[in-house]
Every structure is written in C-alpha cells, then in structure tokens.
C-alpha cells in the first residue's frame, strides 16, 4: 500500500498551472493519499463525521460483487458530494464525437485505409470540441467495443469539467503537452506517455504546450489490464511499477462552472457553482494513471521468425471470451532485429481482429513511407495487408546482420469487432486515396523453378 501526502497548490490557484504533479507507482494497487493531514479515515470508510467536514463517497468501477481480483472501487473524501453537482441536465451537441453503434449507410468501412495527420485547426478547440472520432466498433449500450479518436486541442477547459459514463479513455499523445486535473489528482502528459482515465472520473484538461494532437481509444467494455506474460515470467513487457497514479490534489473554488457528461453516446451539460475537483483524500484501486512507453521492455525473436504482434501487448481489455480481446493496445517501439534467415518485418496478414494503427514518431518497418507521425491506418476485419513493395524488397534482400530499429514508435488498437468509419474519417480527414497502390507493384516472382528468387 502506498501512502503519500501532497499539499496541493490547486487549492489556491484559479487554474492548476504551476502545481507539481506527484505520483504513486503500481498498476491497480490499493492506494491511499491525502492532501491534508488526517483527511483520510483510518480503519473504516464511513465514520459518523469525517475530518474537516468532508463527505465520504464511493466510486464503483465494477459491480459490487465482481470477483475479488477484478473488484475496483475508490473511497473519496470531498468538500461536497457529487450529487450536489448535478442539477438539471441539458442536452448539448458535440458533432465530431461519435459513439457505437454508428454505422453510416453512405460510408464504406470495408477496405484498407490510411490517413495523413489531421491538421491543427485555427479555431479554439478544447478536449471536448477537439475530439474527432475516426472509427466506432461494438455497442455502447451493451458495454462492448470501442471508438478511436484523434484529438486536436489548443485551448484549456476553464471552469468546465467532463466525465464519460460510457467508457474508460486510453490517451496516446503525439504532439504537445496536456494536464489532466482529475478528482483524484493531476496527470501531466506528453508524447511517449499514455494515460488511462477511468469511466466516471471527473476532470478538466489544460493545455501546457499547444497545439496538442494525439489518439484516444475509448473502451466501452471491461477495463484495460496487464496481459498475462505466460512463459515469459514475472518481468519484461509493461512492468506494474512503471504505471503512475496521481496523489490527491483538490480545488476549493466557488465559480460558475459546467460539467459535461457523456452517457450512451449523448452529451449533457449541467451548471454548478464550484469546482467538482474537491476530493481532499482518497483510497482505493479505481484511479487514473499514466505510463511512460519508454519503459516498455520488448521481448521478441532472438534466433529466427517473426512472432505474432501480441508479443508487444502493453494493455489488454478482455471481452469475456478468453484470449479474444475487446481491445489490445500493442506497441511497436525501438528494438534490435537479430533473426537469421528471416523476413523480419510484419508478414502478410488477414486477421479476424480489426487493426487500427497510429504513428507516434519515426518510421514503421512495414511501411517506410506514407505512414507518418500523427497518421493512422485501418486494416479492418479479414482484410489483407502487409509490407508495401519497398519494404518487402528491402527486407527480403537485406544483409541480415544485427540491426537496431531506431526512432520508431507506432501502436495498434486491435479489437475483435469490425471498425466503422465516421463521416469525418471518410470525408473530412486526410484519407490517402492511393494507399492500396503501395501493394500494386508487388512482383510475381514464381516461375515454377525452385530456389530463392
Ligand atoms: O503492421 C501490421 O499490420 C501489424 C502487425 C505487426 C506485426 O509485427 C505482425 C503482424 C501485424 O499485423
Ligand atoms: Fe496486421
């Protein structure tokens, strides 16, 4: 159990810029943290009167009766209970943020697709107005599937807060720096890091360095967890201690504000008179965290052949069918290539799962050109894909000495469900019309004679 105390500058400041974010290590630990001494009750959750006049409130991330190893909840001790924050809800429109099921008859999703980076806009865009849905999969109403988004953020949310009742958000920054001021503490996030924001957690997003662009995987289903390592053992891949959960930090701020809620794909707004980020102390295992992708320790082939990319899974969100994820988050980062007599890049492939990829920086080995930082690609359920002609020719003729793949970080959101393009992805976003031509010049080498061509 971790215990750490931070007296937060959030309390005084009108925004939290300038405060120091502090973190506790571990994935899914039972944490405890207080921003004021003795704010956290000891030995019980519901004292008749909590210290400082705080209200106790539980945030349940799983059903009460979920098996113990999956059961997640957090006890918050806050200046006002959340229910004081909810008055009448009014429907608002965020036209670019879409939710499954969202199958558009005039949009074709069957195919291989690739996009250049969505350019920054000259408008002021917040975390909410700057979210651009690219694909949706599954059904939010039955809590299965996901959506992939690009965010373009230039403006901090001011006296404005948000939570998603629909989903947990996995945030993968590509440009710029953001600060997530959450009920449970502050997370500063930059490229090469990721963050997980649990379903139901209230937060405000500030721009520390803009413009900011990145990718989001919105998970409607069971939470992301660390994959079992099997025979790899107790170490390597993503190690639990490299996940960082913020220490408690609170705002005692009275100001006319809004809270926007995403609920079954709809957005509603309510007005409140104070900051809802008023949790002075908390304990539990349902909390946001961040993770530095540079601490991911890749394990791979050290003699021959190319393993399935699941070897690079950072996080997996189960679907209920064992081994068939609702979402796998897979990382292709710097590593040594040493396999002998082997075609080293990804092989040609058709997959029952749907593969959405994004480039954080550098060059991806199967697509040395055209898949650029900030760009995305989609190889949907059972649609063939693989190295382009240049990658194939290069790798099948290469001198197979040990080689470092340097300056490379791409990722995949892989889901068991087909992914449907939004109108934005099919129309407004910079779709590369000529993407499939990258395979057009692949040569027939077969002439009936044995031997390597
Ligand atoms: O580039 C892709 O499509 C992803 C991918 C990577 C890999 O190493 C093996 C198979 C695969 O589909
Ligand atoms: Fe693939």
Automatic annotation (TrEMBL):
<dbReference type="GO" id="GO:0004411">
    <property type="term" value="F:homogentisate 1,2-dioxygenase activity"/>
</dbReference>
<keyword id="KW-0560">Oxidoreductase</keyword>
<dbReference type="InterPro" id="IPR011051">
    <property type="entry name" value="RmlC_Cupin_sf"/>
</dbReference>
<dbReference type="InterPro" id="IPR014710">
    <property type="entry name" value="RmlC-like_jellyroll"/>
</dbReference>
<feature type="domain" description="Homogentisate 1,2-dioxygenase C-terminal">
    <location>
        <begin position="295"/>
        <end position="446"/>
    </location>
</feature>
<dbReference type="GO" id="GO:0006559">
    <property type="term" value="P:L-phenylalanine catabolic process"/>
</dbReference>
<dbReference type="Pfam" id="PF20510">
    <property type="entry name" value="HgmA_N"/>
</dbReference>
<keyword id="KW-0828">Tyrosine catabolism</keyword>
<dbReference type="InterPro" id="IPR005708">
    <property type="entry name" value="Homogentis_dOase"/>
</dbReference>
<feature type="binding site">
    <location>
        <position position="349"/>
    </location>
    <ligand>
        <name>Fe cation</name>
    </ligand>
</feature>
<dbReference type="GO" id="GO:0005737">
    <property type="term" value="C:cytoplasm"/>
</dbReference>
<dbReference type="InterPro" id="IPR046451">
    <property type="entry name" value="HgmA_C"/>
</dbReference>
<feature type="domain" description="Homogentisate 1,2-dioxygenase N-terminal">
    <location>
        <begin position="23"/>
        <end position="293"/>
    </location>
</feature>
<keyword id="KW-0479">Metal-binding</keyword>
<dbReference type="InterPro" id="IPR046452">
    <property type="entry name" value="HgmA_N"/>
</dbReference>
<feature type="binding site">
    <location>
        <position position="385"/>
    </location>
    <ligand>
        <name>Fe cation</name>
    </ligand>
</feature>
<feature type="binding site">
    <location>
        <position position="385"/>
    </location>
    <ligand>
        <name>homogentisate</name>
    </ligand>
</feature>
<feature type="active site" description="Proton acceptor">
    <location>
        <position position="306"/>
    </location>
</feature>
<dbReference type="GO" id="GO:0046872">
    <property type="term" value="F:metal ion binding"/>
</dbReference>
<keyword id="KW-0223">Dioxygenase</keyword>
<dbReference type="Pfam" id="PF04209">
    <property type="entry name" value="HgmA_C"/>
</dbReference>
<comment type="similarity">
    <text>Belongs to the homogentisate dioxygenase family.</text>
</comment>
<keyword id="KW-0408">Iron</keyword>
<keyword id="KW-0585">Phenylalanine catabolism</keyword>
<feature type="binding site">
    <location>
        <position position="355"/>
    </location>
    <ligand>
        <name>Fe cation</name>
    </ligand>
</feature>
<feature type="binding site">
    <location>
        <position position="364"/>
    </location>
    <ligand>
        <name>homogentisate</name>
    </ligand>
</feature>
<protein>
    <recommendedName>
        <fullName>Homogentisate 1,2-dioxygenase</fullName>
        <ecNumber>1.13.11.5</ecNumber>
    </recommendedName>
</protein>
<dbReference type="GO" id="GO:0006572">
    <property type="term" value="P:L-tyrosine catabolic process"/>
</dbReference>
């Amino acid at each position: 159990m971790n215990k750490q105390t931070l007296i937060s500058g959030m309390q005084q400041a009108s925004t939290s810029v300038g405060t120091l974010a502090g973190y506790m290590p571990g994935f899914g630990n039972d944490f405890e943290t207080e921003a004021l001494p003795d704010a956290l009750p000891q030995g019980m959750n519901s004292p008749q009167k909590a210290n400082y006049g705080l209200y106790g409130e539980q945030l349940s991330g799983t059903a009460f009766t979920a098996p113990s190893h999956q059961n997640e909840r957090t006890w918050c001790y806050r200046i006002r209970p959340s229910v004081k924050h909810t008055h009448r809800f009014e429907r608002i429109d965020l036209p670019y943020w879409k939710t499954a099921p969202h199958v558009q008859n005039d949009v074709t999703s069957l195919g291989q697709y690739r996009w250049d980076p969505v350019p920054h806009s000259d408008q002021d865009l917040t975390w909410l107005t700057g979210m651009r849905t690219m694909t949706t999969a599954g059904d939010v109403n039955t809590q299965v599937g996901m959506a992939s988004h690009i965010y373009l953020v230039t403006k901090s949310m001011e006296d404005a807060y948000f939570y998603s009742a629909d989903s947990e958000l996995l945030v993968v920054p590509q440009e710029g720096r953001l600060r997530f001021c959450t009920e449970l503490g502050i997370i500063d996030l930059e490229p090469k890091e990721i963050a997980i924001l649990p379903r139901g957690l209230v937060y405000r997003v500030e721009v520390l360095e803009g413009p900011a662009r990145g990718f989001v995987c919105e998970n409607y289903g069971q939470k992301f967890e660390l994959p079992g390592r099997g025979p790899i053992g107790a170490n390597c891949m993503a190690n639990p201690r490299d996940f960082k959960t913020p220490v408690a930090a609170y705002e005692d701020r009275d100001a006319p504000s809004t809270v926007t809620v995403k609920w079954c794909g709809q957005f509603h707004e309510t007005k409140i008179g104070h900051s809802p980020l008023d949790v002075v102390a908390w304990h539990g295992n349902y909390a946001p965290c961040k993770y530095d992708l540079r601490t991911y320790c890749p394990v791979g082939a050290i003699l021959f052949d190319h393993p399935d990319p699941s070897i690079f899974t950072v996080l997996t969100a189960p679907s209920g069918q064992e081994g068939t994820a609702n979402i796998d988050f897979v990382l292709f980062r710097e590593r040594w290539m040493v396999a002998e007599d082997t075609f080293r890049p990804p092989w040609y492939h058709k997959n029952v799962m749907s593969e959405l990829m994004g480039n954080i920086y550098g060059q991806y080995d199967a697509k040395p050109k055209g898949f650029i930082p900030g760009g995305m690609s989609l190889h949907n359920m059972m649609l063939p894909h693989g190295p382009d002609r240049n990658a194939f020719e290069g790798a099948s003729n290469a001198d197979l000495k040990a080689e470092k793949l340097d300056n490379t970080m791409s990722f995949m959101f892989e889901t068991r469900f087909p992914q449907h393009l939004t109108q934005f992805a099919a129309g407004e976003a910079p779709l590369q019309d000529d993407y499939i031509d990258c395979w057009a010049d692949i040569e027939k080498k077969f002439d009936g004679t044995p031997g390597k061509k």
